[in-house]
């Protein structure tokens, strides 16, 4: 009996691995073709004011910053170049206890001729408390119809707010996500991963709503905001999904582009993926109610895309160990074991030798991502609540996006 149960668990693990990596993306692709998403047309404003400007919603663009002197000038100039009525847009730069020249540079750029029309408010918090504390404080003080959140190192397409305003004419829309691009990907695997994630997010809408957002740039209705728990890791997933849980939808519009300027080296990328994996575990546990059939298509995508992602490294381990243990007595499991060993061996060789091969790069990035996923999940589960999660990367970074989400 025990042997039968063990075999069933191994087979189920293998099937779920195949489903998550191949079946689910194909299903999303099919659904997207069967139920195409109609984007609301945008009337070009071309920086010319007119009567139609009165109908546009007010927007507060909040930019949390901790030691971002490398990017702050480009970010504020980008904000000043956005095509949106100046009396409808307010930008808040929230400096979270910066110890570098971020604040000084921001004040200098604000005086440049090209930025004088920008309604910019700089809030200088003396103590570094973390992104979530800053967001809770600042969002609770604004009264605009829409709130946009953006990372300092991400530039926004110039008509992004006009496109967003058109989308939010739909009363059901609660969150709008941008198309995230890397100016300089760290590897072929990373570039392919983000292209894949963008396609997934677009297709998720066919089942009711995209899941989460990307901290580089997204918008939501101010009245739907709920304060985040102080220990929230992936705030750009939890915040949007709290809105979705209340009956609204989240959507991605690829006409809105957020371009990431910062290049992450291998060490930064690894540490960030571990932290994000911890956030993935946290969000599945805290939003487990969204697995209820009441949420229909959203429950399906949340289970298939997010819950399974958290479980995936453990399922892969079960499948590998189980296949190897049954290989001597079964030709089927012998083949499965051999295939898994070869895939992991190729990934390991690629990680060590770094050959110039696109398929091997993608395989290595995928496998290393699942290893980071296991490490992050276990760290979150066994991390004592008194030990806070630290930001990853250079001193200038304190954003942690849900890559994966």
Report on the architecture of this protein:
By secondary structure, the protein is α/β, with parallel strands linked by helices. It has one domain: Spore Coat Polysaccharide Biosynthesis Protein SpsA, Chain A. Helices cover about 50% and strands about 15% of the residues. The chain is built from eleven helices and eight strands. The protein has helices at about 1-35, 70-80, 100-110, 130-140, 160-165, 190-205, 235-245, 265-285, 295-325, 330-355, 360-380; strands spanning about 60-65, 90-95, 120-125, 145-150, 155, 175-180, 215-220, 250-260. It has an eight-stranded mixed β-sheet, with helices on both faces. Helix 2 (about 70-80) links the parallel strand 1 (about 60-65) and strand 2. The chain is globular.
Can you tag this structure with a few keywords?
405 residues; alpha/beta; Spore Coat Polysaccharide Biosynthesis Protein SpsA, Chain A; 8-stranded mixed sheet; 11 helices; 8 strands; globular
How does the SSE layout of this entry go?
Blueprint: H1 2-34, E1 59-65, H2 72-80, E2 89-96, H3 102-110, E3 120-125, H4 131-139, E4 146-150, E5 154-156, H5 160-167, E6 173-182, H6 188-204, E7 217-221, H7 235-245, E8 249-260, H8 266-286, H9 297-326, H10 331-353, H11 358-382
Parallel strand pairs: 1-2, 1-4, 2-3, 6-8
Antiparallel strand pairs: 4-7, 5-8, 6-7
Helix pairs in contact: 1-6, 1-9, 2-3, 6-11, 8-9, 8-11, 9-10, 9-11, 10-11
Find the CATH superfamily. Answer: Spore Coat Polysaccharide Biosynthesis Protein SpsA, Chain A
Largest sheet: 8 strands, mixed
- In helices, the fraction of residues equals 40-55%
> What is the domain tally?
1
Strand order across the largest sheet: 3-2-1-4-7-6-8-5
Element-by-element helix/strand order = HEHEHEHEEHEHEHEHHHH
The CATH topology name reads Spore Coat Polysaccharide Biosynthesis Protein SpsA, Chain A
Instruction: State the separation between the terminal residues, measured CA to CA.
Output: 39 Å
Task: Provide mean pLDDT, rounded.
Answer: 89
- The helix/strand class is alpha/beta
Described by the principal axes of the CA atoms, the overall outline is: globular
| Rounded Rg | 22 Å
CATH class: Alpha Beta
Strand content: 5-15%
Task: State the low-pLDDT regions, or none.
Answer: 393-405
Q: What is the CATH architecture term?
A: Alpha-Beta Complex
**Number of beta strands:** 8
Alpha plus pi helix count: 11
């Amino acid at each position: 009996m025990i042997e039968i149960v063990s075999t069933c668990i191994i087979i189920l693990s293998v099937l779920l691995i195949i489903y998550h990596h191949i079946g689910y993306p194909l299903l999303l692709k099919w659904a997207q073709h069967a139920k195409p998403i109609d984007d609301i047309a945008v009337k070009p404003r071309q920086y010319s004011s007119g009567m139609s400007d009165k109908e546009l919603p007010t927007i507060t663009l909040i930019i949390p910053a901790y030691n971002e002197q490398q990017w702050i000038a480009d970010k504020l100039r980008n904000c000043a170049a956005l095509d949106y009525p100046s009396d409808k847009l307010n930008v808040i730069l929230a400096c979270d206890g910066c110890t570098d020249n971020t604040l000084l540079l921001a004040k200098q750029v604000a005086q440049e001729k090209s930025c004088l029309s920008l309604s910019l408010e700089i809030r200088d918090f003396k103590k570094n408390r973390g992104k979530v504390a800053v967001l809770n404080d600042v969002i609770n003080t604004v009264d605009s119809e829409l709130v946009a959140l953006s990372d300092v190192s991400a530039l926004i397409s110039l008509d992004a707010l006009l496109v967003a305003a058109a989308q939010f004419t739909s009363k059901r829309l609660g969150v709008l996500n941008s198309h995230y691009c890397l100016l300089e990907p760290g590897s072929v695997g990373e570039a392919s991963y983000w292209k894949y994630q963008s396609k997934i997010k677009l297709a998720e809408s066919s089942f009711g709503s995209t899941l989460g957002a990307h901290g580089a740039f997204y918008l939501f209705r101010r009245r739907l905001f709920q304060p985040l728990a102080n220990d929230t890791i992936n705030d750009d997933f939890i915040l949007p999904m709290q809105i979705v849980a209340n009956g609204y939808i989240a959507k991605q519009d690829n006409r809105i582009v957020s371009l990431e300027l910062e290049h992450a080296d291998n060490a930064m990328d690894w540490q960030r993926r571990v932290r994000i994996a911890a956030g993935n575990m946290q969000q599945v546990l805290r939003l487990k109610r969204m697995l209820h059939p009441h949420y229909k298509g959203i429950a399906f995508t949340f289970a298939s895309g997010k819950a399974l992602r958290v479980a995936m490294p453990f399922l892969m381990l079960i499948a590998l160990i189980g296949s190897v243990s049954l290989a001597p007595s079964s030709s089927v499991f012998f083949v499965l074991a051999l295939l898994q060993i070869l895939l992991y061996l190729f990934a390991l060789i690629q990680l060590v030798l770094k050959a110039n091969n696109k398929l091997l790069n993608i395989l290595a990035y995928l496998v290393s991502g699942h290893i980071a996923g296991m490490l992050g999940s276990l760290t979150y589960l066994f991390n004592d609540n008194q030990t806070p999660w630290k930001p990853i990367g250079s001193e200038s970074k304190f954003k942690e996006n849900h890559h994966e989400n």
